[in-house]
Amino acid sequence: MNAAHVKFPPATARLAIIAAAFGIWEFAARRFGDPLFIAPPSRVAVALFQLVHEKEIISAVGLTCWELVVAFVLSIVLGLIIGLIVGLNRFTRGSMYPVILLLYAIPQATILPLFVLTFGIGPASKIAFGVSHGVFPVIMTVAAGVQNIEPLLLTSARSMGATRRQILTSVIFPHMVPSFFTGLRLGMTAVLFGVLLAELYVSQSGVGHFTTEFTQTFQPQNLFALVAVLATIAVTLNELCRWAESHFTRWRVS
Amino acid sequence: MTRSRLAERLVQLGFFGAVLVAWEIATTRGHVSALLLPPLGSVYRDFITLLSTGQFWPDLGTTLYELAVAFLIAAVSGTVIGYAVSRSGYSVKVFDPLFAGLYAIPAILLFPLYVLFFGIGPASKIAMGATIAFFPIVLNTIAGLIYVKSLYVTAARSMGASPRQMFWSVMLPAAFPVLLNGLRMGLILAFLSILGSETIASFGGLGHRIVELGENLDTSKMFAYIVFVIIIALLLNSAVSFAESRGRSHPA
Questions:
Q1: Nearest to A200 among B98, B200, B230 (CB)
Q2: Which residues of A touch B224 (CB under 8 A)?
Q3: Which residues of chain A have a CB within 8 Å of the CB of B198?
Q4: Taking a C-beta distance cutoff of 8 angstroms, is the pair B148, B122 a contact?
Q5: pLDDT in tens, A44-79
Protein backbone atom coordinates (compact mmCIF):
# COMPACT_ATOMS: atom_id res chain seq x y z
CA MET A 1 0.00 0.00 0.00
CA ASN A 2 1.62 3.28 -1.07
CA ALA A 3 1.11 6.78 0.28
CA ALA A 4 -1.55 7.64 -2.29
CA HIS A 5 -3.74 4.88 -0.87
CA VAL A 6 -3.68 5.78 2.82
CA LYS A 7 -7.00 4.59 4.14
CA PHE A 8 -8.96 5.88 7.08
CA PRO A 9 -10.15 3.37 9.66
CA PRO A 10 -13.50 1.93 8.49
CA ALA A 11 -15.41 3.58 11.33
CA THR A 12 -14.08 7.03 10.36
CA ALA A 13 -14.97 6.44 6.72
CA ARG A 14 -18.45 5.36 7.80
CA LEU A 15 -18.95 8.53 9.84
CA ALA A 16 -17.73 10.59 6.88
CA ILE A 17 -20.29 8.90 4.61
CA ILE A 18 -23.09 9.55 7.09
CA ALA A 19 -21.99 13.18 7.49
CA ALA A 20 -21.85 13.57 3.70
CA ALA A 21 -25.36 12.12 3.38
CA PHE A 22 -26.64 14.68 5.90
CA GLY A 23 -24.79 17.43 4.04
CA ILE A 24 -26.35 16.48 0.71
CA TRP A 25 -29.75 16.24 2.34
CA GLU A 26 -29.33 19.69 3.94
CA PHE A 27 -28.18 21.25 0.68
CA ALA A 28 -30.76 19.54 -1.54
CA ALA A 29 -33.66 20.25 0.83
CA ARG A 30 -32.75 23.97 1.08
CA ARG A 31 -32.02 24.35 -2.60
CA PHE A 32 -34.61 22.22 -4.36
CA GLY A 33 -37.02 20.97 -1.69
CA ASP A 34 -40.53 22.22 -1.15
CA PRO A 35 -40.70 23.22 2.56
CA LEU A 36 -44.19 21.72 2.70
CA PHE A 37 -42.84 18.26 1.93
CA ILE A 38 -39.22 18.05 3.00
CA ALA A 39 -37.21 19.53 5.84
CA PRO A 40 -33.43 19.92 6.00
CA PRO A 41 -31.70 18.22 8.97
CA SER A 42 -31.02 21.57 10.69
CA ARG A 43 -34.74 22.35 10.89
CA VAL A 44 -35.49 18.79 11.99
CA ALA A 45 -32.99 19.21 14.84
CA VAL A 46 -34.69 22.43 15.94
CA ALA A 47 -38.10 20.73 15.73
CA LEU A 48 -36.76 17.83 17.78
CA PHE A 49 -35.87 20.15 20.66
CA GLN A 50 -39.31 21.72 20.54
CA LEU A 51 -41.10 18.36 20.37
CA VAL A 52 -39.45 16.97 23.50
CA HIS A 53 -41.08 19.77 25.49
CA GLU A 54 -44.59 18.97 24.31
CA LYS A 55 -46.47 16.90 26.84
CA GLU A 56 -48.77 15.26 24.27
CA ILE A 57 -45.86 14.05 22.16
CA ILE A 58 -44.03 12.67 25.19
CA SER A 59 -47.09 10.78 26.37
CA ALA A 60 -47.69 9.47 22.82
CA VAL A 61 -44.13 8.17 22.58
CA GLY A 62 -44.45 6.73 26.08
CA LEU A 63 -47.67 4.97 25.13
CA THR A 64 -46.03 3.43 22.07
CA CYS A 65 -43.06 2.25 24.16
CA TRP A 66 -45.47 0.68 26.62
CA GLU A 67 -47.30 -1.09 23.78
CA LEU A 68 -43.97 -2.36 22.45
CA VAL A 69 -42.84 -3.69 25.83
CA VAL A 70 -46.15 -5.38 26.68
CA ALA A 71 -46.38 -6.92 23.20
CA PHE A 72 -42.79 -8.14 23.44
CA VAL A 73 -43.25 -9.71 26.88
CA LEU A 74 -46.49 -11.41 25.84
CA SER A 75 -44.80 -12.70 22.67
CA ILE A 76 -41.99 -14.22 24.72
CA VAL A 77 -44.29 -15.86 27.28
CA LEU A 78 -46.74 -17.25 24.71
CA GLY A 79 -43.97 -18.17 22.28
CA LEU A 80 -42.02 -20.00 24.96
CA ILE A 81 -45.04 -21.98 26.14
CA ILE A 82 -46.24 -22.91 22.65
CA GLY A 83 -42.69 -23.52 21.43
CA LEU A 84 -41.98 -25.94 24.27
CA ILE A 85 -45.28 -27.78 23.79
CA VAL A 86 -44.61 -28.11 20.07
CA GLY A 87 -40.91 -28.84 20.30
CA LEU A 88 -40.63 -31.24 23.21
CA ASN A 89 -42.92 -33.97 21.95
CA ARG A 90 -42.58 -35.83 18.69
CA PHE A 91 -46.32 -36.12 18.19
CA THR A 92 -47.23 -32.49 18.90
CA ARG A 93 -44.35 -31.41 16.65
CA GLY A 94 -45.50 -33.56 13.76
CA SER A 95 -49.09 -32.46 14.11
CA MET A 96 -48.92 -28.81 15.18
CA TYR A 97 -45.72 -27.54 13.56
CA PRO A 98 -47.21 -27.47 10.03
CA VAL A 99 -50.26 -25.65 11.40
CA ILE A 100 -48.01 -22.99 12.96
CA LEU A 101 -46.02 -22.66 9.73
CA LEU A 102 -49.25 -22.15 7.83
CA LEU A 103 -50.47 -19.50 10.29
CA TYR A 104 -47.06 -17.80 10.09
CA ALA A 105 -47.39 -17.56 6.30
CA ILE A 106 -50.58 -15.50 6.60
CA PRO A 107 -49.86 -11.84 5.79
CA GLN A 108 -51.06 -10.34 9.07
CA ALA A 109 -51.41 -6.85 7.62
CA THR A 110 -54.58 -8.06 5.94
CA ILE A 111 -56.22 -9.02 9.24
CA LEU A 112 -55.34 -5.71 10.91
CA PRO A 113 -58.96 -4.48 10.57
CA LEU A 114 -60.07 -7.60 12.50
CA PHE A 115 -57.79 -6.64 15.39
CA VAL A 116 -59.26 -3.15 15.42
CA LEU A 117 -62.81 -4.51 15.27
CA THR A 118 -62.09 -6.91 18.12
CA PHE A 119 -59.83 -4.86 20.39
CA GLY A 120 -60.88 -1.30 19.55
CA ILE A 121 -58.68 1.55 18.41
CA GLY A 122 -56.84 1.89 21.74
CA PRO A 123 -53.55 0.31 22.82
CA ALA A 124 -55.08 -3.20 23.08
CA SER A 125 -55.30 -3.66 19.30
CA LYS A 126 -51.67 -2.52 18.82
CA ILE A 127 -50.47 -4.91 21.51
CA ALA A 128 -52.49 -7.80 20.08
CA PHE A 129 -51.24 -7.05 16.56
CA GLY A 130 -47.66 -6.80 17.80
CA VAL A 131 -48.01 -10.16 19.58
CA SER A 132 -49.43 -11.74 16.42
CA HIS A 133 -46.16 -10.75 14.70
CA GLY A 134 -43.72 -11.43 17.51
CA VAL A 135 -44.96 -14.77 18.78
CA PHE A 136 -44.09 -16.78 15.67
CA PRO A 137 -40.32 -16.23 15.55
CA VAL A 138 -40.16 -17.11 19.26
CA ILE A 139 -42.18 -20.31 18.76
CA MET A 140 -40.06 -21.37 15.80
CA THR A 141 -36.69 -20.78 17.48
CA VAL A 142 -37.75 -22.33 20.81
CA ALA A 143 -39.15 -25.39 19.05
CA ALA A 144 -36.01 -25.67 16.91
CA GLY A 145 -33.77 -25.15 19.95
CA VAL A 146 -35.18 -28.06 21.93
CA GLN A 147 -35.17 -30.32 18.89
CA ASN A 148 -31.69 -30.21 17.46
CA ILE A 149 -29.97 -31.59 20.52
CA GLU A 150 -27.01 -33.85 19.92
CA PRO A 151 -28.18 -37.41 20.65
CA LEU A 152 -24.83 -38.01 22.33
CA LEU A 153 -25.69 -35.52 25.08
CA LEU A 154 -29.08 -37.10 25.70
CA THR A 155 -27.69 -40.64 25.66
CA SER A 156 -24.88 -39.83 28.05
CA ALA A 157 -27.24 -38.00 30.42
CA ARG A 158 -29.60 -40.96 30.33
CA SER A 159 -26.82 -43.50 30.81
CA MET A 160 -25.71 -41.60 33.90
CA GLY A 161 -29.20 -42.10 35.25
CA ALA A 162 -30.64 -38.62 34.76
CA THR A 163 -34.38 -38.39 35.29
CA ARG A 164 -36.60 -36.85 32.66
CA ARG A 165 -36.81 -33.70 34.74
CA GLN A 166 -33.03 -33.49 35.12
CA ILE A 167 -32.58 -33.95 31.37
CA LEU A 168 -35.02 -31.12 30.82
CA THR A 169 -33.39 -28.67 33.24
CA SER A 170 -29.74 -29.61 32.73
CA VAL A 171 -29.51 -30.59 29.06
CA ILE A 172 -32.45 -29.31 27.05
CA PHE A 173 -32.93 -25.85 28.58
CA PRO A 174 -29.26 -24.81 28.49
CA HIS A 175 -29.08 -26.07 24.92
CA MET A 176 -32.11 -23.95 24.04
CA VAL A 177 -30.65 -20.69 25.38
CA PRO A 178 -28.80 -19.48 22.25
CA SER A 179 -31.67 -20.08 19.86
CA PHE A 180 -34.07 -18.61 22.42
CA PHE A 181 -32.17 -15.31 22.37
CA THR A 182 -32.04 -15.39 18.59
CA GLY A 183 -35.82 -15.77 18.78
CA LEU A 184 -36.04 -12.77 21.09
CA ARG A 185 -34.15 -10.62 18.61
CA LEU A 186 -36.28 -11.76 15.66
CA GLY A 187 -39.38 -11.36 17.83
CA MET A 188 -38.41 -7.79 18.71
CA THR A 189 -38.01 -6.90 15.03
CA ALA A 190 -41.42 -8.40 14.31
CA VAL A 191 -43.10 -6.71 17.32
CA LEU A 192 -41.71 -3.34 16.19
CA PHE A 193 -43.15 -3.87 12.72
CA GLY A 194 -46.55 -4.97 14.06
CA VAL A 195 -47.00 -2.27 16.71
CA LEU A 196 -45.76 0.57 14.49
CA LEU A 197 -47.87 -0.58 11.55
CA ALA A 198 -50.96 -0.70 13.77
CA GLU A 199 -50.08 2.72 15.20
CA LEU A 200 -49.79 4.22 11.72
CA TYR A 201 -53.03 2.56 10.68
CA VAL A 202 -55.25 4.03 13.37
CA SER A 203 -54.44 5.81 16.58
CA GLN A 204 -56.16 8.17 18.98
CA SER A 205 -53.36 9.31 21.23
CA GLY A 206 -50.30 7.29 20.18
CA VAL A 207 -47.58 8.33 17.76
CA GLY A 208 -49.69 7.29 14.77
CA HIS A 209 -52.08 10.11 15.59
CA PHE A 210 -49.25 12.64 15.33
CA THR A 211 -47.64 11.19 12.18
CA THR A 212 -51.02 11.54 10.47
CA GLU A 213 -51.49 15.07 11.82
CA PHE A 214 -48.01 16.23 10.78
CA THR A 215 -48.45 14.73 7.30
CA GLN A 216 -51.85 16.28 6.74
CA THR A 217 -50.85 19.70 8.06
CA PHE A 218 -47.58 19.71 6.08
CA GLN A 219 -45.12 19.93 8.98
CA PRO A 220 -42.30 17.77 7.61
CA GLN A 221 -39.79 18.97 10.22
CA ASN A 222 -41.99 17.62 13.05
CA LEU A 223 -42.70 14.40 11.16
CA PHE A 224 -38.98 13.79 10.53
CA ALA A 225 -38.20 14.54 14.17
CA LEU A 226 -40.86 12.14 15.47
CA VAL A 227 -39.69 9.42 13.06
CA ALA A 228 -36.12 10.01 14.26
CA VAL A 229 -37.20 9.58 17.90
CA LEU A 230 -39.05 6.34 17.11
CA ALA A 231 -36.16 5.02 15.01
CA THR A 232 -33.79 5.68 17.91
CA ILE A 233 -36.05 3.78 20.30
CA ALA A 234 -36.39 0.92 17.83
CA VAL A 235 -32.64 0.69 17.23
CA THR A 236 -31.99 0.77 20.99
CA LEU A 237 -34.44 -2.08 21.62
CA ASN A 238 -32.95 -4.05 18.72
CA GLU A 239 -29.43 -3.50 20.01
CA LEU A 240 -30.42 -4.62 23.53
CA CYS A 241 -31.71 -7.89 22.07
CA ARG A 242 -28.60 -8.27 19.93
CA TRP A 243 -26.40 -7.65 22.98
CA ALA A 244 -28.38 -10.20 25.02
CA GLU A 245 -28.04 -12.69 22.18
CA SER A 246 -24.26 -12.40 21.94
CA HIS A 247 -23.88 -12.21 25.73
CA PHE A 248 -25.86 -15.36 26.45
CA THR A 249 -24.52 -17.39 23.54
CA ARG A 250 -20.82 -16.70 23.97
CA TRP A 251 -20.19 -19.88 25.99
CA ARG A 252 -20.97 -21.89 22.92
CA VAL A 253 -18.13 -23.07 20.74
CA SER A 254 -18.75 -22.05 17.12
CA MET B 1 -44.91 -45.03 11.65
CA THR B 2 -47.75 -44.60 9.18
CA ARG B 3 -50.22 -44.83 12.02
CA SER B 4 -48.63 -41.92 13.84
CA ARG B 5 -48.52 -39.94 10.56
CA LEU B 6 -52.21 -40.61 10.22
CA ALA B 7 -52.81 -39.45 13.80
CA GLU B 8 -50.84 -36.25 13.09
CA ARG B 9 -52.99 -35.51 10.04
CA LEU B 10 -56.09 -36.20 12.12
CA VAL B 11 -54.96 -33.69 14.75
CA GLN B 12 -54.37 -31.09 12.03
CA LEU B 13 -57.75 -31.71 10.45
CA GLY B 14 -59.31 -31.73 13.91
CA PHE B 15 -57.76 -28.34 14.69
CA PHE B 16 -59.15 -26.67 11.58
CA GLY B 17 -62.43 -28.54 11.99
CA ALA B 18 -62.74 -27.29 15.57
CA VAL B 19 -62.04 -23.71 14.48
CA LEU B 20 -64.73 -23.92 11.81
CA VAL B 21 -67.25 -25.57 14.15
CA ALA B 22 -66.60 -22.98 16.86
CA TRP B 23 -67.02 -20.25 14.26
CA GLU B 24 -70.29 -21.74 13.02
CA ILE B 25 -71.69 -22.19 16.54
CA ALA B 26 -70.60 -18.71 17.62
CA THR B 27 -72.31 -17.07 14.68
CA THR B 28 -75.51 -19.13 14.54
CA ARG B 29 -76.25 -19.92 18.19
CA GLY B 30 -73.98 -17.57 20.06
CA HIS B 31 -74.30 -13.88 20.62
CA VAL B 32 -71.40 -12.84 18.41
CA SER B 33 -72.42 -9.93 16.25
CA ALA B 34 -72.34 -10.60 12.51
CA LEU B 35 -70.43 -7.32 12.20
CA LEU B 36 -67.56 -8.83 14.14
CA LEU B 37 -67.68 -12.40 12.88
CA PRO B 38 -69.90 -13.12 9.88
CA PRO B 39 -71.47 -16.58 9.44
CA LEU B 40 -69.32 -19.07 7.50
CA GLY B 41 -72.01 -19.50 4.87
CA SER B 42 -72.07 -15.84 3.93
CA VAL B 43 -68.26 -15.64 3.79
CA TYR B 44 -68.31 -18.66 1.49
CA ARG B 45 -70.94 -17.07 -0.75
CA ASP B 46 -69.00 -13.81 -0.91
CA PHE B 47 -65.80 -15.69 -1.69
CA ILE B 48 -67.43 -17.55 -4.57
CA THR B 49 -68.90 -14.29 -5.89
CA LEU B 50 -65.48 -12.69 -5.60
CA LEU B 51 -63.86 -15.45 -7.65
CA SER B 52 -66.61 -15.82 -10.24
CA THR B 53 -67.07 -12.11 -10.97
CA GLY B 54 -63.34 -11.45 -11.05
CA GLN B 55 -63.82 -8.19 -9.12
CA PHE B 56 -60.49 -8.83 -7.41
CA TRP B 57 -58.49 -8.18 -10.59
CA PRO B 58 -57.94 -4.39 -10.29
CA ASP B 59 -56.75 -4.63 -6.67
CA LEU B 60 -54.65 -7.73 -7.29
CA GLY B 61 -53.15 -6.01 -10.32
CA THR B 62 -52.26 -2.90 -8.32
CA THR B 63 -50.62 -4.89 -5.53
CA LEU B 64 -48.69 -7.19 -7.86
CA TYR B 65 -47.58 -4.24 -10.00
CA GLU B 66 -46.26 -2.45 -6.90
CA LEU B 67 -44.57 -5.65 -5.74
CA ALA B 68 -42.95 -6.30 -9.14
CA VAL B 69 -41.54 -2.78 -9.52
CA ALA B 70 -40.39 -2.59 -5.89
CA PHE B 71 -38.71 -5.99 -6.08
CA LEU B 72 -37.04 -5.18 -9.39
CA ILE B 73 -35.59 -1.92 -8.00
CA ALA B 74 -34.41 -3.64 -4.80
CA ALA B 75 -32.99 -6.71 -6.61
CA VAL B 76 -31.02 -4.70 -9.18
CA SER B 77 -29.72 -2.03 -6.80
CA GLY B 78 -29.09 -4.55 -4.00
CA THR B 79 -27.06 -6.99 -6.09
CA VAL B 80 -25.14 -4.26 -7.98
CA ILE B 81 -24.26 -2.31 -4.82
CA GLY B 82 -23.54 -5.55 -2.95
CA TYR B 83 -21.20 -6.68 -5.73
CA ALA B 84 -19.43 -3.29 -5.83
CA VAL B 85 -18.97 -3.32 -2.04
CA SER B 86 -17.72 -6.91 -1.99
CA ARG B 87 -14.89 -6.09 -4.41
CA SER B 88 -12.57 -4.88 -1.66
CA GLY B 89 -12.21 -5.95 1.94
CA TYR B 90 -11.99 -2.31 2.97
CA SER B 91 -15.32 -1.28 1.48
CA VAL B 92 -16.94 -4.34 3.08
CA LYS B 93 -15.67 -3.12 6.45
CA VAL B 94 -17.03 0.35 5.77
CA PHE B 95 -20.41 -0.47 4.24
CA ASP B 96 -21.48 -3.80 5.71
CA PRO B 97 -22.06 -2.42 9.26
CA LEU B 98 -23.68 0.67 7.73
CA PHE B 99 -26.28 -1.41 5.87
CA ALA B 100 -26.77 -3.71 8.85
CA GLY B 101 -27.33 -0.70 11.11
CA LEU B 102 -29.85 0.88 8.75
CA TYR B 103 -31.59 -2.49 8.46
CA ALA B 104 -32.23 -2.33 12.24
CA ILE B 105 -34.46 0.72 11.77
CA PRO B 106 -38.05 -0.44 11.20
CA ALA B 107 -38.52 0.83 7.66
CA ILE B 108 -42.30 1.04 8.09
CA LEU B 109 -41.60 4.28 10.03
CA LEU B 110 -40.57 5.88 6.76
CA PHE B 111 -43.99 5.33 5.25
CA PRO B 112 -45.48 8.66 6.43
CA LEU B 113 -42.47 10.41 4.85
CA TYR B 114 -42.93 8.47 1.63
CA VAL B 115 -46.58 9.49 1.51
CA LEU B 116 -45.43 13.09 1.80
CA PHE B 117 -42.83 12.67 -0.99
CA PHE B 118 -44.50 10.29 -3.37
CA GLY B 119 -48.18 10.82 -2.70
CA ILE B 120 -50.83 8.33 -1.75
CA GLY B 121 -50.70 6.37 -5.05
CA PRO B 122 -48.61 3.29 -5.95
CA ALA B 123 -45.30 5.21 -5.88
CA SER B 124 -45.17 5.42 -2.08
CA LYS B 125 -45.81 1.66 -1.77
CA ILE B 126 -43.16 0.90 -4.37
CA ALA B 127 -40.68 3.05 -2.44
CA MET B 128 -41.66 1.31 0.81
CA GLY B 129 -41.35 -2.20 -0.65
CA ALA B 130 -38.06 -1.37 -2.38
CA THR B 131 -36.55 0.10 0.81
CA ILE B 132 -37.51 -2.93 2.91
CA ALA B 133 -36.38 -5.46 0.29
CA PHE B 134 -33.06 -3.70 -0.47
CA PHE B 135 -31.35 -4.53 2.83
CA PRO B 136 -31.63 -8.33 2.96
CA ILE B 137 -30.65 -8.45 -0.72
CA VAL B 138 -27.57 -6.24 -0.38
CA LEU B 139 -26.44 -7.88 2.88
CA ASN B 140 -26.81 -11.39 1.47
CA THR B 141 -25.05 -10.42 -1.75
CA ILE B 142 -22.08 -9.14 0.24
CA ALA B 143 -22.11 -12.14 2.58
CA GLY B 144 -22.43 -14.59 -0.31
CA LEU B 145 -19.61 -13.08 -2.33
CA ILE B 146 -17.08 -12.57 0.46
CA TYR B 147 -17.49 -16.06 1.88
CA VAL B 148 -16.73 -17.82 -1.39
CA LYS B 149 -14.09 -20.31 -0.34
CA SER B 150 -10.66 -18.85 -0.95
CA LEU B 151 -9.62 -22.28 -2.20
CA TYR B 152 -11.88 -21.88 -5.25
CA VAL B 153 -10.59 -18.39 -5.91
CA THR B 154 -6.96 -19.41 -5.62
CA ALA B 155 -7.49 -22.48 -7.78
CA ALA B 156 -9.25 -20.46 -10.50
CA ARG B 157 -6.60 -17.75 -10.38
CA SER B 158 -3.75 -20.26 -10.61
CA MET B 159 -5.41 -21.75 -13.67
CA GLY B 160 -5.36 -18.28 -15.21
CA ALA B 161 -9.02 -17.26 -15.01
CA SER B 162 -9.76 -13.74 -16.27
CA PRO B 163 -11.71 -11.40 -13.92
CA ARG B 164 -14.75 -11.98 -16.07
CA GLN B 165 -14.44 -15.77 -15.95
CA MET B 166 -13.78 -15.47 -12.25
CA PHE B 167 -17.08 -13.68 -11.70
CA TRP B 168 -19.33 -15.77 -13.93
CA SER B 169 -17.81 -19.21 -13.35
CA VAL B 170 -16.56 -19.07 -9.77
CA MET B 171 -17.94 -16.24 -7.64
CA LEU B 172 -21.53 -16.20 -8.87
CA PRO B 173 -22.22 -19.96 -8.76
CA ALA B 174 -20.58 -20.26 -5.35
CA ALA B 175 -22.48 -17.29 -3.89
CA PHE B 176 -25.74 -18.19 -5.62
CA PRO B 177 -27.55 -19.99 -2.74
CA VAL B 178 -26.92 -17.08 -0.35
CA LEU B 179 -27.94 -14.56 -3.02
CA LEU B 180 -31.15 -16.46 -3.63
CA ASN B 181 -31.90 -16.51 0.07
CA GLY B 182 -31.59 -12.70 0.17
CA LEU B 183 -33.85 -12.32 -2.86
CA ARG B 184 -36.45 -14.61 -1.28
CA MET B 185 -36.43 -12.65 1.98
CA GLY B 186 -36.59 -9.40 0.02
CA LEU B 187 -39.59 -10.49 -2.01
CA ILE B 188 -41.57 -11.69 1.02
CA LEU B 189 -40.74 -8.58 3.07
CA ALA B 190 -41.68 -6.34 0.13
CA PHE B 191 -45.02 -8.13 -0.22
CA LEU B 192 -45.83 -7.80 3.49
CA SER B 193 -44.81 -4.15 3.68
CA ILE B 194 -46.73 -3.26 0.53
CA LEU B 195 -49.88 -4.88 1.93
CA GLY B 196 -49.23 -3.09 5.22
CA SER B 197 -48.69 0.31 3.66
CA GLU B 198 -51.79 -0.14 1.52
CA THR B 199 -53.80 -0.50 4.69
CA ILE B 200 -52.36 2.76 6.09
CA ALA B 201 -52.91 5.11 3.14
CA SER B 202 -53.90 4.13 -0.38
CA PHE B 203 -56.41 4.42 -3.20
CA GLY B 204 -56.12 0.83 -4.37
CA GLY B 205 -54.62 -2.58 -3.82
CA LEU B 206 -55.67 -5.62 -1.81
CA GLY B 207 -54.64 -4.18 1.55
CA HIS B 208 -56.66 -1.05 0.87
CA ARG B 209 -59.73 -3.05 -0.24
CA ILE B 210 -59.75 -5.12 2.95
CA VAL B 211 -59.47 -2.06 5.18
CA GLU B 212 -62.19 -0.26 3.24
CA LEU B 213 -64.57 -3.20 3.58
CA GLY B 214 -63.76 -3.36 7.29
CA GLU B 215 -64.44 0.34 7.74
CA ASN B 216 -67.77 -0.03 5.94
CA LEU B 217 -68.54 -2.94 8.29
CA ASP B 218 -68.96 -5.20 5.27
CA THR B 219 -67.27 -7.91 7.32
CA SER B 220 -68.38 -10.94 5.36
CA LYS B 221 -66.89 -9.57 2.14
CA MET B 222 -63.79 -8.51 4.07
CA PHE B 223 -63.27 -12.11 5.26
CA ALA B 224 -63.69 -13.29 1.67
CA TYR B 225 -60.93 -10.90 0.59
CA ILE B 226 -58.73 -11.97 3.52
CA VAL B 227 -59.09 -15.61 2.46
CA PHE B 228 -58.23 -14.56 -1.09
CA VAL B 229 -55.07 -12.70 0.01
CA ILE B 230 -53.98 -15.61 2.20
CA ILE B 231 -54.27 -17.92 -0.82
CA ILE B 232 -52.25 -15.44 -2.93
CA ALA B 233 -49.61 -15.26 -0.19
CA LEU B 234 -49.36 -19.05 0.05
CA LEU B 235 -49.06 -19.30 -3.75
CA LEU B 236 -46.33 -16.65 -3.71
CA ASN B 237 -44.51 -18.49 -0.90
CA SER B 238 -44.58 -21.81 -2.70
CA ALA B 239 -43.58 -20.22 -6.03
CA VAL B 240 -40.57 -18.64 -4.32
CA SER B 241 -39.59 -21.87 -2.55
CA PHE B 242 -39.91 -23.70 -5.86
CA ALA B 243 -37.72 -21.15 -7.65
CA GLU B 244 -35.20 -21.32 -4.82
CA SER B 245 -34.94 -25.12 -4.89
CA ARG B 246 -34.57 -25.06 -8.69
CA GLY B 247 -31.88 -22.39 -8.39
CA ARG B 248 -30.04 -24.42 -5.77
CA SER B 249 -30.04 -27.65 -7.76
CA HIS B 250 -28.81 -26.00 -11.01
CA PRO B 251 -26.35 -23.34 -9.94
CA ALA B 252 -25.70 -21.21 -13.04
A1: B200
A2: none
A3: 109
A4: no
A5: 999 988 888 888 889 999 999 999 999 999 999 999
